Amino acid sequence: MQRLLSIVTLAVSLSACATGDDTQIGLDELAAGNGAPSGAHYNLNIIGVEKGKSPNLTGGDGHRIFVPLSGSAKINLGEGEFAVIDANATDGTGAFQLPAPDADNDGVTSYSVYSRALGTPGGSSTTTTCATDPTTGETICSNQSSLLLRTKGKSKFTNVSSALLYVMADIDGDGTVERVPLFDDRLSDYFWQYDNNGLRIAQLRFYEVPTNVN
């Protein structure tokens, strides 16, 4: 019975890691030591490409978003179940949907984001969470960013929940940095500013485990 349960658990884990036509996660990546929690998760690959994609790639496009291999892209964020809304950000703008991470803004997330760099060694990317001040129309970006560097050897995940799920900024001009979670109504039109310098794949995993960002 114990052996049967182990086989079933492994099968469920492999199923959770399947990402359509994305890079498949092998058994070695499920082993302890890759920096990410164990268990079910939503997988998103941000893929750098040299040439722009011509289709709109909206709806049913798998767990990936295409961005320029060198340059910047804006990934608009909407509230809802995890889903890629517009997979083509090579034209400058893509779209991703995800749940509100901290509805009561107590600094403890309802889920966590882990990221790592994959692909040819040497590339890097920076992701910053930004939004619009609804009273002034000004774009406000967090003072935290997620920096990924692709070095040689096995790439490990790091927890980037604070950088990707919040805007940390002085939004009211009082000299104090406020913590504003995604979809908080103090700001609007949330997005990730993705700046790529040759990184082929930025892999994000969303786990149903909390992170305390206080």
Structure overview:
With 214 residues, this protein is mainly β. The protein has one domain (2-207). Helices cover 12% and strands 41% of the residues. The chain has three helices and 13 strands, in the order ααβββββββββαββββ. The strands form three sheets. Strands 4-5-3-12-7-8 form a six-stranded mixed sheet. A five-stranded mixed sheet has the order 2-1-13-6-9. Strands 10-11 form a two-stranded antiparallel ribbon. The longest helix is centred in the N-terminal third of the chain and has 16 residues, at 2-17. The protein starts with a helix and ends in a 7-residue tail after the last strand. Mean pLDDT is 85; it is low at 1-32.
Provide the helix percentage: 10-25%
Q: Which H/E pattern describes the elements?
A: HHEEEEEEEEEHEEEE
Q: Which value, in Å, is the CA radius of gyration?
A: 18 Å
Question: Which strands sit side by side, in order, in the main sheet?
Answer: 4-5-3-12-7-8
Question: Into how many domains do the coordinates divide?
Answer: 1
Number of strands: 13
Distance between the termini: 43 Å
Oligomerization status of the protein chains: single chain
The low-pLDDT segments are 1-32
Average pLDDT, to the nearest integer? 85
Q: DSSP strand (E) fraction?
A: 35-45%
Count of alpha/pi helices = 3
Major beta sheet, specifics? 6 strands, mixed
